[in-house]
Design goal:
By secondary structure, the protein is mostly helical. It contains 17 helices and two strands. InterPro entries: Isoprenoid_synthase_dom_sf, Polyprenyl_synt, Polyprenyl_synt_CS.
């Protein structure tokens, strides 16, 4: 029933239904808030995104023995759809912290709010206003994610109780991962272990591992299934982030929805950069070290400057080293699927999605 585009459409339908119900309540409180904050949040959630997290939660449900159809399947998918609101929360905050101007090929939320301020000729600093309004929209998304999740499971109290652990853990891990990312930039942390920890908590846990855990918990899966899914999620989630890091320098804006070199300009300390810096120092290539260090966190980098850094990292072997680690993670993740008593249909689907998510052609 819920395959590919049909699954995507079903998730979007649940989100539309939930947001439609909330629209009247916020309009009754304040029409400007409804138009500017709610409208922007709803548009972001409904008009974009690959629905990766709800889809993994669905396949966690199926892997744990959940049915493909019926009232419980519908409730499980509706609950999983709340992960898109968690994603909106994370992206709105992340773009403010990283000062990212573009998200999904259009101005980021805080940029759009700042433009409202400028066009209205309002008092104060438009940038500060834009960032503050985006953080409020993020807060709203997180509160509503919890409302949607718990409300969807009203008829399944036992399942809701089982899912509390992964739901709560996911939120904490997200915040810790975001903090580690922020601190690593502030400290100019060059340790290769740091981006791996950030990837584990900020991306892998809430993008793949915990959604799978969540779905399996809803289905009442046994410990072996949950453990196998979490091993898979940890490996594939980390691989997915490494692919994203590579796409930041070697991808295309039309493909990623972001400017090439955005992470570099923002000062994000990726594994790719950490490996490149280590290799440059080991070889005594002081010019390469200086080029890399001067580029990290430099907002004025041109596309040509970004290409120089990308070519330098490739020449140092950092790009291939990250590709090799990514391939090992992919192998580790798919192997874990065969070591746990996961429903066959879910095993094959998760194997396919793993290769699709981290393919070199992404």
């Amino acid at each position: 029933m819920h395959r590919d585009h049909r699954l995507h459409e079903a998730i979007t339908g649940h989100l539309e239904e939930f947001l439609d119900r909330r629209s009247a309540s916020v309009t009754g409180l304040d029409t400007d808030f409804a138009a500017e904050v709610f409208g922007r949040l709803a548009g972001f959630v409904l008009d974009g995104g690959k629905r990766i997290r709800p889809i993994f939660a669905w396949w966690g449900w199926r892997a744990g023995g959940g049915t493909d159809d019926g009232p419980e399947a519908t409730a499980a998918l509706r609950a999983a759809s709340a992960l898109e609101l968690v994603q909106a929360f994370a992206l709105f905050q992340d773009d403010v912290m990283d000062r990212s101007a573009v998200r999904r090929g259009r101005p980021a939320a805080h940029v759009e709010f700042a433009n409202d301020h400028r066009s209205g000729g309002w008092f104060g600093d438009p940038v500060r206003y834009g960032e503050s309004a985006a953080l409020l929209a993020a807060d709203l998304a997180l509160v509503w994610a919890d409302d949607m999740f718990t409300g969807a499971l009203r008829s399944m109290p036992d399942a809701r109780e089982r899912a509390r652990e992964p739901w709560r853990a996911m939120h904490t891990e997200m915040v810790v991962g975001q903090f580690l990312d922020l601190r690593s930039q502030a400290r100019s942390d060059e340790a290769e272990s740091t981006p791996l920890r950030v990837n584990r908590l900020k991306t892998a846990a809430y993008s793949v591992e915990r959604p799978l855990h969540l779905g399996a918990a809803l289905a009442g899966a046994g410990e072996e299934v949950v453990a196998g899914l979490r091993r898979y999620g940890k490996a594939i989630g980390c691989a997915y982030q490494l692919r994203d890091d590579l796409l930041d320098l070697y991808g295309r804006p039309a493909q990623t929805g972001k400017a090439v070199g955005g992470d570099l300009r923002e000062g994000k300390r990726t594994l790719l950069l950490a490996v490149g810096l280590r290799r440059a120092r080991e070889r005594g290539e002081h010019g390469a070290v200086e080029t890399l260090n001067s580029a990290i966190g430099s907002p004025g980098l041109t596309d040509g400057d970004v290409r120089v850094v990308a070519e330098l990292l490739a020449a140092l072997g950092a790009r291939e080293a990250v590709e090799q680690r990514l391939d090992r993670l992919l192998e580790e993740g798919t192997r874990s699927l065969t070591e746990a008593p996961i429903a066959p249909a879910a095993r094959e689907e998760l194997r396919r999605r793993a290769h699709e998510a981290v393919s070199r052609s992404n």
